[in-house]
Amino acid sequence: MADPGKGRGFLREVLLIAFVMLLALLIAMLLGRIPGAHGADTDTAAPRIVSARVVAPDHVVVRFSAPLSRTDAANFRFSQEKAPDLPLPVSAVQVRSPGRIELTIDRPLRAAEHYRLEVLEPPLARAVRPSSWALLLTVVLSSALINNFVFTRYLGLCIFFGITRKRDAAVGMGATFTLVMVTTGMLSWVLYRFVLRPLSLSFLQILVFIGVVAFLVQMLDTVLKKTHAGLHKKFGIYLMLITTNCIILAVPLLNAAADAGALESLALAMGSGLGFAMALFLMSCARERMELARVPASFEGLPIAFALAGLFALAFMGFSGLDFMR
Asked: What is the pairing mode between strands 59-64 and 100-105?
């Protein structure tokens, strides 16, 4: 009869040997020194472009895996991705460190644009594009602050003036609107990308988007009526007016017109919803304070509300010069 202790000891030895061999193989792969893998040393490998990014107003920082033999301006070609036949002049090249070069372009550059970098010797090419996460964050902040739909485009004013008399109702409407905005934006993007555009039915996009919004708002109205009757009563008719709200229809239409991807559509919908919620909150705080102030009789009600909205719009104009991609 076999001894079970010897069997377990043998199994432990086999597992230990396998673990050591796997660890040695992993270390060899990390060091790039597996014998006979390619028969070439990494130090003598041809240089390649590791990264390239635009630094406003007119610089491009490029990192290479190895130093280049030529670092003169004539060895580099820089152009816009949408116009590759029209190169932008490279006026100067500065070697910051081995493998890191800074190009000076004789034209203003935008960090959000797409460019193309080419090296003549050795022949290399790379697309210079902004970081995806930085671009998405820029879309969210721009749609919430710089291009706020209420204070800069004057859309959605019906709900804006109707629901901002009380702060709690404004906060609830802001959260509800953001939820509906994100859900509607993504569902509309799916329908447009996979149904309307392949079937050449883009002319029906307004009807389809209104139908999507109406379905979601009706479902939300039923849920709130059953679960939060008090909040549903505060919203009143303004909850159903979300169906034909200018903002909630503008976002899917803008995404469709720009042929935006899924992440860009999500960022625009989220930023627009947050911007509208912020506008409701700010306006409701100001109107509650205004009720305690002495207002001339001719300015009571909507006139003073329009004056407050104009002041907020002037304040939000200060965000117009922001560039989050610098």
From this structure: antiparallel
Task: Pick the closest to residue 289 from 279, 304, 275 (CA basis).
Answer: 304
Same domain, 118 and 160: no
The reply to whether 222 and 258 lie within a common domain is yes
DSSP class per residue in 159-223 = HHHHSTTSHHHHHHHHHHHHHHHHHHHHHHHHHIIIIITTTT-GGGHHHHHHHHHHHHHHHHHHH
Q: Which residue segment(s) compose the domain that 125 sits in?
A: 45-130
pLDDT (0 to 100) of residue 26: 63
> Which tokens in the block code for residue 57?
């107003």
Q: How big is the chain, counted in residues?
A: 326
Token code pair at residue 287 = 């109107």
Look at residue 325 and tell me if it is in a domain: no
* Angstrom distance (rounded) from CA 62 to CA 50: 8
CB 288 within 8 A of CB 120: no
- Identify the band that residue 41 occupies on the pLDDT scale cut at 50, 70 and 90: very low
Longest dimension (CA), the chain: 106
pLDDT of 31? 58
pLDDT at 25 over 50: yes
**Cα–Cα dist 202/195, whole Å:** 9
What 3 state SS string does 138-158 have? HHHHHHHHHCCCCCCCCCCHH
105 forms bridges with which residues in the sheet? 90
Q: Which residues contact 208 (CB under 8 A, 6 or more apart)?
A: 188, 191, 192, 196
Among 69, 95, 130, give the residue marking a domain's end.
130
Q: Check residue 47 and report its DSSP letter.
A: P
Q: What Å distances lie between residue 82 and 75, 87, 114, 115, CA to CA?
A: 22, 11, 8, 8
Closest by CA to 132, choosing from 272, 267, 255, is 267
